[in-house]
Amino acid sequence: MIKRLSYAGIALLLIIALMGSLGVLTGVRGDSRQTYSLTAAENEFGVLTLSDQTLHAGETFTVTVQPAEGYRTAFVVADALTSRTLAEPNRKKTVFTGVMPSHDITLQGIFVPEKEYAVALLYNTLRGDCWAEPASAAAGTPVILNTSVKEPYQVSRIASVPEDLAETMVAGENGTRLFNMPESDVVLEIGMTRDAFEDVPDDAWYASYVYDIVDKGIMAGISSTEFQPEGQVTRAQAAQILYTMAGAPAVNTASSFNDVFPGQWHYNPITWCTSNGVMAGYSSGDFLPDAAITRQQMTSVLYKYTTKILKDPASERDDLQFFADKDSISSYAKTSMQWAVARGIISGTRENGLLYIQPQGVVSRAQMAIMLSSMLSDAGEQTPVSPAPETPSPEITESPSPEVTESPEPVDEGTDFKDVKSYSWYRSAADYCVAQNYMTADDGRFLPNKEVTRGQAAQMLYSLADRPAVSGQTPFTDISAGVYYSDAVTWCVQQDIAAGFADRTFRPDIPISRQQFIALLHRYTKFRGYRIEPSDNLNKFPDGGTVSDYAVIPMGWATHYSLIAGISGNLEPFGTLSRSQMACILQTYDRQIAGK
After folding, report:
1. pLDDT single digits (tens) 335-387
2. N or C: which end of the chain has fewer CB within 10 A?
3. What DSSP letter does each residue of 381-394 carry, written as one string?
């Protein structure tokens, strides 16, 4: 009757408690031109009636919940959706609304006898399993919470609705917890964590990526306590990672390399990667499994894995114009590097005010985790499609990554920008902001991953205000009267929206962080007389406590109105704001705050 609920990784399964509240679902914004299916699971104890079965991402739908005679609705569940309480429901018949995300979803009603209450569980299925016995029962009935956690994880916390229920739990045998069913439905969120790697500090810029990719089982530490983030990735290790991502398929061909032999740990991975055209060896007949792999070689390998194994066209391209060392990229890797930058798989390193992509730099284990986590996050849950094994070509190129034949830059059908896919999460926002003249496109490119600078942020706020007339001169020594953002900066300062530095500079070319821009937007909102309340508590985000004091209220306001959301569950207040993020903020701002 009751089905236990779980989530895997960041694809959370979130629950709407219809017993005591009416839930409104809000989904992730997606492409408004692509349709997705909405279905309701059959249940003998109740019926869900949907207003629509095919919707565009971002469109609203309604769901009518009708329990069978003698039953009531405990929960309605859906994948990758969030809930917000609006009002008390009718126990026998409830209607609520939702927003379609950018993927197909199935809603399921959890119905229980009228005198019973249900237990719903939230946990990460990659880290273990949890179940309640019984899953529904009358008030006062003893309930056992069972947890089976995989190594090296352990149960770190249990949060409950009602909130005080977790405090009343009593430890039982074999890690079980005991409690009595209250006079309400119960939601238990079981947190499972592992002991941190000793060499991966919590505040390390790569920490979240390392744990994400380790949790997915794609990489592992060199021991239970060490990850060795600065260690170099070898060609054999790269092959093993790709082979693992592909599900470790059967290998029916033989290796022809002089230095790769049956029985070695990397024999199957290297053989599979080379026979499927994902990697190649040298003209000497060697694979050089112990050689370190460079950034451009790894992007070339990931590009071929994406196109050949995942069957993804990988049509995105960045022109790399902002990288000072773009001319040092080898010809075979140019296409793959353009793709990797466009998808956010790799980014540059800023030195002395210049951005470098470092194509010849060796990939570290931390960098590999970032590349893989970013790639899989962008690709979503894709199932590899392994092509039929091919006989390795006798002509093995001298470069570890063979040259990729370049073709005219493709334009993804259905989008106005060369570098924005029709199904990109920021697609509709990019279209909207350019149409509203808030943002501009450069030669048919939106440049979604490009950093937003302080000068550009001021210009965008000035555009939101319809570019009013400006009197007076800019007070900053580093802004000349003729520069495009001169009036914007002057206006923002005059309205107390932005400020400069003590040395009378504005530093317009410095990238702006997420919390800095939200603070500016909050001040602009106050200037316009729009809503600047309420402000949510940021404790629900693991890094909510790192938000600077000046930005706590603005960031809480922004999360309340869904102007910003977490990145892999974190706010990342000090993260640089990208153009794609900016577009989504501005589009949502017009809808939620300005009422356009």
Report:
1. 999 999 888 899 877 777 788 899 999 999 999 999 998 888 654 434 344 33
2. C
3. S----PPPP-PPPS
